[in-house]
Amino acid sequence: MRALLPGMREWKFRSCVAVLGLSASLAFGAWESAGATGVPADDTIIKSHGLSVFGDLKYGPDFKHFDYVNPDAPKGGEISTWAFGTFDSLTPFILKGNPGALSTVFYDSLMSGGLDEPDAMYGLVAHSVEYPESREWVIFDMRPEAMFRDGTPVTAEDVVFTFETLRDKGRPSYQLLFKDFIQAEALDTHRVKFTFRPDGALREAYLTAAGLPIFSKAYYETQDFEETSLEAPMGSGAYTLQSVDPGRSIVYKRRDDYWAKDLPVNVGQNNFDLLKVEYFADYTTAFEAFKAGAYTFREEFLSRLWATGYDFPAIDKGWVKLETLPDGRPAGTQGFWFNLRRDKFSDPRVREAIGLAFNFEWSNQSLFHGLYTRTNSFWENSEMQAEGLPDAGELELLEPLRGQIPDSVFTDPVYTPGESRPDSAGDRRALRRASKLLDEAGWSVGDDGLRRNAEGDVLSVEFLNDSPSFDRIILPYVDNLQRLGIDASAQRVDAAQAQQREKKFEYDVTVRRYAMSQTPGTELRGIFGSDAAGIEGSNNVAGLQDAAVDQLIQKVESADNREDLKTAVRALDRVLRSKHIWVPQWYKPVHNIAYFDMFERPYTDNPPPGGLGELSIWWYNAEKAAKLKAEGALQ
After folding, report:
1. Contact by Cβ (8 Å): 459, 452
2. Residues contacting residue 25 through CB under 8 Å, at least 6 positions apart
3. Domains in the chain, start-ordered, CATH in brackets?
């Protein structure tokens, strides 16, 4: 999941989302009684046009389109953006290869979500859904008109094939995702049923089933799913492949014959004829290419560039627009992550000491032009962020774990990194505290100035980095660690090497950002769960294996209402922060965007809370584009 849009260094160094692109939890809305064969008489069957987490659906069964779109948006034109690194595949569901950005656009799913209701899904390939109050199964009734790109129908057999293929041949993390599934079965041509373990995270299983990308069973009779490919796979989605230049660019073309273009979930969306992604090996080259008109939309994640770089001629001439728009999503979980699979990081005092050597305040003032705020929580800037001492609800979840989690969880306010002095990269107070912790952990400074343990092993820390623009952040940090007697270094590799080393967990410290859900659930198993720690290519980059954390994740998954969910997530956040598995970095609650003045959108100053929607709900203004081209603004 390396090559997501855009390059994402300071703000989104390596952004990871749930493996299906959907990370909200699922419960139930639009209840309706019915009967069903084989279901206990007292088990009400619910039928609905959509699924909601903890309340009623915003949109009724007869809704025409999402509120945030322009239903009359014109179709046509193109939008282009950039991605960092390289790619060698259009197959995003296997561990092998490096998939190209946006390579999930080929596929439809049974249901689809929106940008204004983070925990709801509505019918796409499936027009309706039914399930019992016991939540032990779900049936999707599919639209007979759903067609793959080659004109063949999308059937229940294709959905079953998708599930079984991902489970048996997909990325190893799918085994965790499908842990609570018993089976998928085709009841008839357009009716598919998923059955779940009664003791599993049933709320999460419904969402996973609804969000499956649907593969063509017939297509894979002659194609090897487990091999990388740069050919367009057979899907039923709105876009297909127009062209691909391996490692350099991908162009996706909107299908004029897309079967679902008039469905409510798609009205006012998929407005561009072409979606282009240009690849660059480094941030500076990508920025220079944008200035020259090589691509047309850019979200800026590098504070130095946003503060000092956006004064080029295309702006002065009015060709490029600059905007700062609010970001309604949780801040995300970005930081330096320790690889706990390595014994030298087994003591939390060592990890805390290394964290104290990072001077955010100096970095923000000297490098970031004061544009960022320090991240403290794994759910920063949200209602799920733990604060102060645990409240009664949290204590109810934490008390059974006493003895398995640090005593400080009960006695001290939730851990936050202390503020460092901004006038110098090395804060002596923070370094003294760090030195004391290292001494207590048994890492003493020798005659050569290096810290060693009782066995004589030198404490070394190597940062994995694939971006020249990130050197200015890591190198002062390395200097501080060296002052502590740690043999610290930063190893810069290319994007392909970084991807392979991360897959195999070959690093001391890496940088990662997770886009955390507003309704956390099963995806937490992949990020923090013990079972994911040993799965190659999993999102558990820290290698965390902790029974107490696993139990709290289960509490999050089983929460029956939003208040219980918030309480469970706060308890989990509190415990995770006490373990010092990362060195938190920074965030900003806005989108800094730059784009050539050839697009329009359905909102002015306030995008929907789920995102900008620039690739889907924006549209192309042909007259503006023609003017820019006539004036030589674009390549």
Report:
1. yes
2. 53, 119, 203, 204, 207, 517, 519, 520, 521, 522, 557, 565
3. 1-328+591-635 (3.40.190.10), 343-587 (3.10.105.10)
What is d(CA 233, CA 248) in angstroms, rounded to the nearest whole number? 19
What secondary structure does DSSP assign to 194-261, as a single string?
EEE-TTS-HHHHHHHHHTPBPPPTTGGGSS-TTS--SSPP---SSEEEEEEETTTEEEEEE-TT-TTT
> Which pLDDT tens digit goes with each residue over 362-417?
999 999 888 889 999 999 988 999 999 999 999 999 999 999 999 999 999 999 99
Is the per-residue pLDDT at 36 higher than 80? no
**Nearest-angstrom CA–CA distance, 17 and 1:** 8
For residues 140 and 348, give the distance between their C-alpha atoms in angstroms, rounded to a whole number. 47
| Closest listed residue to residue 543, CA positions, set 582, 578, 517 | 582
Give the range among 189-198, 265-274, 435-444, 463-472 with minimum mean pLDDT: 463-472
The single-letter code of the amino acid at 507 is: Y
42-79 pLDDT, tens digit per residue, is 568 999 999 887 768 999 999 999 999 999 999 999 99
Task: Compute the C-alpha angle 241/244/247, nearest 5°.
Answer: 135
The count of other CB atoms within 10 Å of the CB of residue 374 is 17
Q: Give me the long-range contacts of 439-445 (CB less than 8 A, separation at least 24).
A: 440/349, 441/347, 441/349, 441/350, 441/353, 442/347, 443/350, 443/485, 445/485
Whether 337 and 510 have beta carbons less than 8 Å apart is answered as yes
Residue 86's closest CA among 232, 249, 288, 296? 249
Query: What crossing angle do the helices spanning 348-356 and 428-440 adopt, rounded to 10°?
Result: 170
List C-alpha distances in Å: 304 to 10, 358, 497: 10, 19, 27
pLDDT at residue 459, rounded to an integer: 98
**In this model, does residue 288 exceed pLDDT 70?**
yes
CA 390 to chain centre: 28
Residues 143-180 pLDDT 10s: 999 999 999 999 999 999 999 999 999 998 898 889 99
Specify the 3-state DSSP secondary structure of 333: strand
Q: Using the predicted structure, report yes or no on whether residue 331 has a pLDDT greater than 90.
A: no
287 phi-psi bin (left φ>0, alpha ψ -120 to 50, beta other): alpha
What values do phi and psi take at 85, rounded to 5? 95, -125
Q: Is the pLDDT of residue 591 over 90?
A: yes
**Which H or E element spans position 556?**
helix 547-558
Helix (H) or strand (E) holding 551: helix 547-558
Contacts of residue 511, Cβ cutoff 8 Å, sequence gap at least 6:
13, 14, 334, 335, 336, 337, 463, 464, 465, 470, 585
Taking alpha carbons only, the member of 253, 216, 264 closest to residue 57 is 264
Amino acid at 605: D
Stretch 418-445: mean pLDDT, rounded?
92
Give the pair of three-digit tokens for residue 63.
């809704």
CA distance 23 to 17: 7
Chain-centre distance for alpha carbon 333:
10
Q: Considering Cα of 132, then 133, then 136, then 141, what sign does the dihedral take?
A: positive
304: tokens are 């130095």
User: 95 or 438, which is more confident?
Assistant: 438
Give CA–CA dist 63/77, Å, rounded.
Answer: 28
- The β-bridge partners of 545 are none
